[in-house]
Amino acid sequence: MADTAVERRPGRPRTQTLDERVLEGVSALLESGETLSVRRVVEASGVSKAAIYRRWPGITELIAAALDRGRTPYGISLSGDLLENLLEAFSSDGAEVGYSEERLRTRLRLSLADRDLQQTYWNSHITRRRAGLLELLQLGVARGELRADLDFDACCDLITGVFYYQVVVRGDSLSDPATRDRCRAALRVAWRGMLNPG
Amino acid sequence: MADTAVERRPGRPRTQTLDERVLEGVSALLESGETLSVRRVVEASGVSKAAIYRRWPGITELIAAALDRGRTPYGISLSGDLLENLLEAFSSDGAEVGYSEERLRTRLRLSLADRDLQQTYWNSHITRRRAGLLELLQLGVARGELRADLDFDACCDLITGVFYYQVVVRGDSLSDPATRDRCRAALRVAWRGMLNPG
């Protein structure tokens, strides 16, 4: 298994390969519905306990990292029409989702069952991913397009909340055209609400 | 147990008491983490299978009804200042939550694990509860305060999405003053975005 991982990513350093092996092991265990422990991860990945603890402080951080696998930052362009960039970034493959919807649902389900995991995931992954959106809003204010008195946190919650709502409450798919249209309409409302009237 | 239920609600008809007994039984089973079946509900509630099936078509509808226990409609006033009414309705006890946050988390967790349950809950409970919010927006348009071209579904998702985001993504409590302030700020942004510019 180590060899396979090495062959698949020949240019990557040894430590990344180990990381990847561990996270793949954790993901597989999560998908199987097993209760996780570092001992089970050692068995599933073949990576030693010591090596795991050198990389992650504990099982919660390890699960959070595995749940984040495959997700990419929003990737919002900061030149030209900011609203168009926002719509584009959030409709490329549904919301802030750079991975399958089933994995998103699993991540949310586990987070709702475990507040520690939820807070860890929020602090270590989501806040980092929100940085691109925050930057876009700050640029809008700097340009004078958006109001100077914006509550950035509230605006980020408003913008991303509508996408989570589709998955968590409606049970709709973000790749469904009707869902995307609804989200785009909602983003336009939010954007108008942030515009500088002056 | 039947007697207790009857004593607690002396003025209510017999059928409502049976409903309540069944839903209490289902809730207790859900809280214990048990896998549910109609047979287990019969054992837990003492109500016959035939009586249960007369009221609910199946286990999914029964779970949806139990998850909705204790929730009340938004209760949005439709006179006076509509934005103030909206802020008031959504800050009375956090979002659209007329029951404990743990039950909300349980409901969302079960929905994420079971798409049938999620769709049933959406169709039979949430769409009904959204009616008050929808009415408020429609009144705003009729008054000329809100834009005539609003996508009502998108706006309802935007407004309620920000509250779910607090619980599902941030892991924050809706009774926390900082969370409430953030949600209120977001609602004001959404409202400005819906205003009729004419």
TrEMBL record, chains A, B:
Domain of life (superkingdom): Bacteria
InterPro entries: Homeodomain-like_sf, HTH-type_TetR-like_transc_reg, HTH_TetR, Tet_transcr_reg_TetR-rel_C_sf, TetR_C
Keyword set, alphabetical order: DNA-binding, Transcription, Transcription regulation
Pfam annotation, one family: TetR_C_11
Domain annotation HTH tetR-type: ranges: 36-66
Domain Tetracyclin repressor-like C-terminal: 103-178
Gene3D superfamilies: Homeodomain-like, Tetracycline Repressor, domain 2
UniProt keyword Protein biosynthesis, yes or no: no
Molecular function GO labels: DNA-binding transcription factor activity; transcription cis-regulatory region binding
Listed name of the protein: TetR/AcrR family transcriptional regulator
